[in-house]
Design goal:
The protein is mainly β. The protein contains three helices and 35 strands. The longest helix is centred in the first third of the chain and has 9 residues.
């Protein structure tokens, strides 16, 4: 890295990019594994540098006049033939009177408060990068990320909003893996076009305006996405096969964790990176048939699982660190969990419900047991049981705060019933049934306008 700084200094100022003052008209040679990510649609060099500053392990970027942005972990061998500009993720501090910087320092202000959400922002030398973090039961209608440089936003903050969500219910099983997809909401229930194959033990997430359904018994190596005409098509391939895994979306990236085949690994997808999926941080414990939940902009928990029944681990994806948290009161797998928030009581927590203990007496080992983690104290406490014991269920928060437990099986039959958790009484009540029975399904919340209001 010292060589790079000398390289930038000795080049005359006449060949510096007029957008980022500390870059040089040169490139980086690819060596070993130093190429981190590629995006072919980055409008300017400032946005390329902002992407580098926001990407873990990125130290150097190269931006091309064609609009390509390459991120590197290092750049020990400069490429003098490249028609591109290369610089560090952040420019060094300089005097405000420096003519190279006085006109390029960002004049951005932090965005004003957003209804049903909050902003998480990072300020670098010249760039302000902000993410819209929607409350449980809401989702951004499109991208959550915007970058401000030279006093203007890449996506106008006034156009970004958090919309109330409905549930998109995918796959599961009755007597075999299901291709069926349905939309579920209050007085709203209808089918969407079928998946390309039957899905079970999969994940489904809403990320930057797209629905991604990933892994599972029939599709362990790849993800499909919901197209604008509401059909399903191939999106991307995992680095490792996964089913029985968990997932979480943080700062516009999808993280998947564990599963049958690789229970101690994770990987992540940045939609801006055309290189696709890449390896994430190793997991501290075996994570298979458990659940994961985001609790902060770059922090998630893994909870329970077949070989770690009571274990709870907190991961920070920015720092690449982990720490054990208080164990569950009741060990379990085939359960589900969601992040909950009550602004009126200033409460943030994680609700866990249902699951299976691993025992052989289905009357007691399939669970109705529910417990709530208070994130302010780090302690679990028991809350009201589900009305129906169930494992293989999934949970979701929709419609501005309704906490739903959907489907599963009770040891005898698969279920179509849905229960709602009432925060004020900490008890469960029944809601309308789904259109069909489903266990080992996956559910995510999506903006209602994404799929319309058909009742067919």
């Amino acid at each position: 890295m010292i060589f790079l700084w000398i390289f930038w200094i000795i080049f005359p100022s006449s060949i510096l990019s007029d957008r980022v003052w500390c870059s040089s008209h040169s490139g980086c040679q690819i060596s070993e594994d130093n190429l981190l990510a590629v995006n072919k649609t980055v409008a300017d060099e400032v946005s390329c540098q902002a992407w580098c500053a926001d990407t873990a392990s990125c130290q150097v970027y190269s931006w091309f006049l064609t609009g390509e942005c390459w991120l590197f972990t290092s750049c020990d061998l400069p490429d003098l033939t490249c028609d591109c500009w290369t610089g560090p993720k952040e420019c060094p501090a300089t005097s405000s009177s420096d003519p190279q910087t006085s006109s390029s320092v960002s004049s951005c202000q932090l965005p004003s408060e957003k209804e049903n959400g909050d902003w998480f922002c990072r300020q670098s030398e010249e760039i302000l990068t902000c993410f819209l973090e929607c409350d449980p039961g809401y989702a951004a209608a499109a991208e959550t990320k915007t970058i401000c440089s030279q006093g203007s936003w890449s996506r106008p903050v006034e156009d970004m909003r958090c919309s109330s969500t409905i549930a998109l219910v995918t796959g599961g099983s009755e007597w075999g893996p299901l291709q069926s997809v349905e939309v579920y909401g209050t007085n709203l229930s209808y089918y969407l076009p079928d998946l390309t194959e039957g899905y079970r033990y999969h994940s489904c997430d809403f990320i930057e305006g797209d629905v991604l359904i990933c892994g599972g018994i029939s599709a362990s190596g790849y993800c499909n996405y919901l197209t604008p005409n509401l059909t399903w098509a191939l999106h991307s391939n995992f680095t490792q096969a996964r089913d029985g895994h968990s997932s979480a979306v943080m700062m516009g990236r999808l993280h998947v964790m564990g599963g049958y085949f690789f229970p101690n690994s994770s990987e992540l997808l940045d939609p801006e990176d055309e290189l696709g999926w890449k390896t994430g941080q190793d997991l501290a414990t075996n994570s298979m048939l458990g659940c994961a939940v985001k609790i902060d902009h770059d922090v998630f928990l893994t909870i329970g699982g077949q070989n770690s029944l009571s274990t709870v681990v907190e991961y920070n994806v920015t720092e690449g660190t982990w720490v054990r948290r208080a164990d569950l009161l009741q060990g379990r797998y085939w359960h589900s969990c969601v992040y909950v928030k009550d602004k009126g009581r200033d409460f943030r927590g994680v609700l866990v419900a249902g699951g299976y203990t691993g025992g052989h007496n289905l009357d007691v080992d399939i669970l109705a047991h529910s417990e709530l983690l208070d994130l302010s104290t780090g302690m679990w406490r028991r809350v009201g049981d589900l009305n129906m014991k169930r494992d293989g269920l999934d949970m979701v928060v929709v419609e501005g705060g309704e906490i739903l437990a959907m489907g599963g099986e009770n040891g005898t039959i698969s279920l179509r019933s849905v229960e709602m958790f009432k925060m004020e009484t900490e008890t469960w009540v029944y809601k309308e049934d789904m259109l069909m029975v489903r266990d080992w399904l996956s559910v995510t919340g999506i903006p209602k306008e994404m799929v319309g209001n058909s009742t067919n």
